[in-house]
Write a structure and sequence with these properties.
heterodimer; A: 6-stranded parallel beta sheet; B: mainly alpha; 7 helices; 79% helix
Amino acid sequence: MSQAILLVIVLVAIYWVAKIAVKRKLKTRSIPGLERIDEWIKEAAKLNRSVFFTPGTGGITTPDTLAALALLGYVAKHCVEHNARLLVANSDPQVQQLTEDMVKSAYAKAGREKEYSTDMVRYVSTRQFAYAAGVMGILRREKPAVNFFVGDFQAEALQIAETGRGEAIYQFGGTTNTDQLPFFMTTCDQTLIGEELYTAQGYLSSDPEAVSRLIGPDAGKILAILLILAGALLITFGNSILIALMEL
Amino acid sequence: MSSDKKKMTRGELGLQVIIFSLGFFYAIVYYVAVPGTVNLQAVSDQLLAYLTAVLTAAFAIGVINLTRVHVNNIKRKRATWRYSVILIICLFAMAIFSMIASPFALDPRATVIPAGVIAFSTPIWEFLYYKILVNINSTIFSLLAFFIASAAYRAFKARSLESTILLVAGLLVILGQAPVVDLVWPGFGAIRDWILAFPNTAGQRGILIGAALGILVFSVRRLFRYPWGD
């Protein structure tokens, strides 16, 4: 029950802070990686090289994958706009259908359905290392100008990233998996760390209100930090009221 | 994304109602247990089972996509068309032998498929699976060691304050992990434990708390509005 109460408190706090942020037109801190996406896509188009995107090995119920798909929408739209060829590789067949639909829709919205071809969105394999080998092969053969690998990644992340690095490709990574994040940091030009992945869609929005709304989750974070500090202090002085409240 | 302000069409509204109802139902089941005759958890489990069945059908579409992409490669004689031929042969050979002779075979009691065919296929499947697939898998996995070495070399270059801290912390953890160093000075083990238990855990938890809140807000937004890709 306490979990439900905490959830409601956090959601209300996020909602109100977001509302205030929208009213006062507050801006979030800048995320340099996201600001360069457009620039990279334009450069890929100029070089006549493709843009590669993979949402990782997560399934359709994985939050990181869903956040990656939100970003794919943006990347696909801008690839169509700038005439850059987009290549998408999937590990999960359900995600494959979604990505195929998204890329097709991006072309359809621009009235250029005929430019879409089946080999733009590919299913590689559900097996982790078969997928890794497939993606490494695509990076080596197709030599894209940009590699977006954003979503849920495990051990294959470093294999993909190092291959991209070897091919001198601009690399844009993003995940919430803390085991893989160090590898992303060392091999990518830009990395979305943890929650930045979930704010990407709002951040890239042309709607200033959507950008202001991103400040909302920070309220949740401050609340969590305050709870942690209060809990640590209380337990240090032998008071376990917060623990008792949480266990209700 | 600026489409957040666009009005939904009737179809989108209907879809949104379904998305919201199912998402809200799953959230409620997690947080609320209703005592009595209605077992919400059982309903939720049943729905998940249906979902799994629907999602499994998507595998066939994955295979169709793979086949289309590589058949096109072969037809147009693209630079790597030979690899596509190998892929198509391996894909279907493995699928056929798996259906006949693997532990998940369609007809293990030989009611439809002749026993002779199963007996013939079993050693082939075993060879393909245990002698080829498992070994290739291990080979690709073991490549990771070399990739880690090259990534570590790049990360551990002391170019800035941050990378110097990373280098020192990394070295201390490595020294603490190596058994032979214990003979020189056992204190490295304690330093390693401290680094892993405090700065490392604190950093990881910070990221996890942020990500959890991000997921929460992202999910709530999805429940109320479904604007993928716009």
